[in-house]
Design brief:
This protein is 41% helix and 12% strand. The chain is α/β, with parallel strands linked by helices. The protein has one domain: Phosphoenolpyruvate-binding domains (TIM Barrel, Alpha-Beta Barrel). An 8-stranded parallel β-barrel has the order 1-2-3-4-5-6-7-8, surrounded by 6 helices. It is elongated, with a radius of gyration of 26 Å. The N terminus is likely disordered.
């Protein structure tokens, strides 16, 4: 994807990619080293997802993560990938109550976190939130289908839009978000024909996750993609590496070397000139007690 003159990815470029049929590659990111690697690999968009609650902070769902925690992660990602478009999730409880609360939260993510775009889930009341945030000049990415922040109401983490009526509802949600001003929409966990139909109807890019190949782009969670997550991966995940296994092997080897006295060795130690070593050891040698003292 081409970039603007200062090298920063832009939203108009994503629109052009959709029109040209060029796929958008997006991945979640939670820290500076990961963001640096993603930027070096040429990813188009990085998402600081509230999935960090689960894959970074160890919670059982996305709900507990706070706005302050999202700000910390977003700042780290922006520092690591200054030339990549960064989207940050509005966490649960920071936009549901009112348009004013939603706008205040979005301002913090942009002003103090450095995010280029904020993302929120669902339609319904969220449509009004999108309008308020966009009216203040902050781009918003929408999210329909499986919305993890409301997974309990949806019957758990399972595919959506599998009936004609549900598919029509998700289509209308996506269209409502576009009309409200969303710059892009994530389509999660839905049959490919539904995602393809939505992608054809909306003018903004769609980013799929478990929504088939006919979205304008794809996103995966960093830990799933790299094989770092524990437990069974979701159906839609393709693991491109097994870094979890490799990391465990490295840690086991390190612990074994420490316990056996093999690490650290000379290559991992700082040398000292021989004459300085002798002087130090002489000075540090304990004094011999005077046997004639009373």
């Amino acid at each position: 994807m081409s970039s603007s003159r200062d090298g920063k990815r832009t939203l108009p470029e994503l629109i052009l990619m959709k029109r040209r049929g060029e796929k958008i590659a997006m991945v979640t990111s939670y820290d500076a080293p990961g963001a640096r690697a993603a930027e070096g690999a040429g990813l188009d968009v990085l998402l600081v997802g509230d999935s960090a609650a689960m894959v970074v902070l160890g919670h059982a769902s996305t709900l507990p993560i706070t706005l302050d925690e999202m700000l910390l992660l977003t700042r780290a990602v922006v520092r690591g990938a200054p030339r990549t478009l960064v989207v940050a999730d509005l966490p649960f409880g920071t936009y549901q109550v009112s348009d004013e609360e939603a706008l205040a939260s979005a301002v913090r993510l942009v002003k103090h976190g450095g995010a280029d775009v904020v993302k929120l889930e669902g339609a319904g009341p969220a449509v009004s939130r999108v309008r308020a945030i966009v009216a203040a000049g902050i781009p918003v990415m929408g999210h329909v289908g499986l919305t993890p922040q409301s997974a309990t109401m949806l019957g758990g983490y399972r595919a959506q839009a599998r009936s004609a009526d549900d598919a029509a509802r998700v289509m209308e949600d996506a269209l409502a978000l576009e009309r409200a001003g969303c710059c892009a929409i994530v389509l999660e966990a839905m049959p490919p024909p539904v995602a393809a139909a939505i992608t054809a109807r909306v003018q903004v890019p769609t980013i799929g996750i478990g929504a088939g190949p006919r979205c304008d782009g794809q996103v995966l969670v960093w830990h799933d993609l790299l094989g770092v997550s524990t437990g069974p991966a979701p159906r839609f995940v393709k693991q491109y590496a097994a870094l979890g296994d490799e990391t465990r092997r490295a840690l086991e080897a390190y612990a074994a070397d420490v316990r056996a006295g093999r690490f650290p060795g000379d290559p991992h130690s700082y040398p000292m000139p021989e004459d300085e070593r002798r002087r130090f050891e002489a000075a540090a040698r304990p004094a011999v007690p005077d046997s004639t003292a009373p």
